[in-house]
UniProtKB/TrEMBL annotation:
Organism in which the protein naturally occurs: Collinsella stercoris DSM 13279
Residues involved in ATP binding: Y18, E30, E78, E87, L88, H89, K96, D97
Transmembrane stretches, start-end: 35-52, 58-77, 98-122
Major subcellular location class: membrane
Keywords: ATP-binding, Cell membrane, Kinase, Lipid biosynthesis, Lipid metabolism, Magnesium, Membrane, Metal-binding, Nucleotide-binding, Phospholipid biosynthesis, Phospholipid metabolism, Transferase, Transmembrane, Transmembrane helix
Family of the protein in this entry: Belongs to the bacterial diacylglycerol kinase family.
Name of the protein this chain belongs to: Prokaryotic diacylglycerol kinase
Top-rank taxon: Bacteria
GO biological process, one term: phospholipid biosynthetic process
Coiled coil: none
Manner of cofactor binding, per the entry note: Mn(2+), Zn(2+), Cd(2+) and Co(2+) support activity to lesser extents.
Entry membrane topology: Multi-pass membrane protein
Catalytic residues, chain numbering: E71
Length: 129
């Protein structure tokens, strides 16, 4: 497809299908996305047990979504780098390492949010205000 060309531009439904195909491919081929999905499911189960408040659910949902988003972006960036070069180039390594670091930083941030949310839900810390 030529960028900006409407003639070959996929429909909204077809674009949605491509997105699902990409997600399924990532789940089938990437270990880390599987781990993050399991962690997300376990967090939701823990949230149900803790009977989280609506704002806590919002924070948890945002964190789960952002971590999965970051891992999908990291996976896509790694594929692009691999497509661009098969050699062990220092810039390729740098790009991959920085992309992985972004997922790491976001995962730590999400874990901190999760600790705060669940500590509050189980009465281990006081009120938010």
């Amino acid at each position: 497809m030529i960028p900006g060309s409407q003639k070959d531009h996929p429909s909204f439904i077809r674009s949605f299908g491509y997105a699902i195909e990409g997600f399924v491919t990532a789940v089938k081929t990437e270990r880390n996305i599987k781990l993050m999905l399991v962690a997300g499911v376990l967090t939701v189960v823990a949230g149900l047990v803790a009977q989280l408040e609506m704002i806590s659910w919002a924070l948890i949902a945002i964190c789960i979504g952002l971590v999965i988003f970051a891992e999908l972006c990291n996976t896509a960036m790694e594929a692009i780098v691999d497509l661009a070069t098969q050699e062990l180039h220092p810039l390729a390594k740098r790009a991959k390492d920085i992309a992985a670091a972004s997922v790491y930083v976001l995962s730590i941030t999400a874990a901190i949010v999760g600790i705060l949310v669940f500590a509050h839900a189980f009465g281990l810390v006081g009120s938010w205000h």
